[in-house]
Amino acid sequence: MRTTSRYRAVARMSVAIGVLSLVAACAGSGGAPGGGTTGASGAGGYPDKNITFVVPFSAGGPTDTVTRMIAEPMAAKLGAKVVVQNAEGAGGTVGAGEVARADPDGYTVLMHHIGMSTAPALYKDLGYKPLENFEMVGLVTEVPMTVVARKDFAPATLQDLVTYVKANAGKVTLANAGIGAASHLCGLLFQSATGVKLQEVPYEGTGPALTDLVGGQVDFMCDQTTNTSGQISAGEVKAYAVTTPERVKSLPDLPTTTEAGLPQLQVSVWHGLYVPKGTPQDVVQKLSEALKTALADKGVVDQMAKLGTAPVAAEDATPQAHRAKLEEQLGTWAKVIADAGVKAS
């Protein structure tokens, strides 16, 4: 079996997007988590100082990339500077917890992904409740995932992969970016859909996992199109399918999992914006309107298309649609994670 470099330093993936480079932290910028500002009573003059967007993952990752895409057009609509702050740790729960405890004044905004719906099932002492400690602002995008393998891996198609792993379960290595990561969740669904328990290899992020896959040190993994499109197009990995009902425009030759014979494997990494519970509704609405403006921006649409995704429809960039999505996903993943018997430490 191949050896793995599980804990090598996180490789920063370079993202070729023409977006504004924002400072990660600004001294004296209002609204940073724990900053001690007072809660707003309403929109009034909101915003009258910097707004901090907290990304609970490392810089350069897919959630960070999506956040920086929408930050500039949202800032323009709001008439205030938006500062992006990375607060990674514990599968996104560190940054989410900071925002849950921040002042509910609209100056601290969280961008989170599907992990908001899986954390309650994974962590025993989470410290916050997604539906009770946050106001939803709106959904942002749903990023498809791809099933990819080292380029010299024997199976040629997704059906071949299923047959192969069933015959070689003890030898096949399935990489992921750590417990609770999107790649981990997709991997759990793959194992559930195929009825096979594989040898999982967790990494400290997507960067090193994909690096080892390209290097041939692990066999296969699931990962977001925002991370894999470049490697697939360059022929650095073998791609089997995309995990959404429709094909991805940037990868038109890649079949869906349904077309490839594994319809049970359906997952996308949805992102949404949150503010602390108690944030005035007119402030939430102002943020939601700015989000809709950003998602309709041609530059944002084009940048997302290059990475294999697209903005959600305007009706989904609302607090109501966001809450409905979160409620549904909390139930879905609670069952999947319980059946897998997975817990984060």
Notes on the structure:
With 345 residues, the chain is an alpha/beta fold. The protein is 36% helix and 17% strand. It contains 11 helices and 9 strands. The protein has helices at residues 62-78, 93-101, 115-122, 130-133, 158-167, 182-194, 206-214, 225-233, 281-295, 298-306, 319-340, and strands spanning 51-55, 82-86, 108-112, 134-150, 173-176, 199-202, 220-224, 237-242, 268-276. Strands 1, 2, 3, 4, 5, 6, 7, 8 and 9 form a 9-stranded mixed β-sheet that branches. The chain is globular and about 65 Å long.
The structural class is alpha/beta
Number of strands: 9
Poorly predicted spans: 1-41
Helix content: 25-40%
The number of helical runs is 11
Output the radius of gyration: 20 Å
Shape category:
globular
Q: SSE order in H/E notation?
A: EHEHEHHEHEHEHEHEEHHH
Q: What is the beta-strand fraction?
A: 15-25%
Overall average residue pLDDT: 87
Distance between the first and last residues' Cα:
27 Å
Biggest sheet statistics? 9 strands, mixed
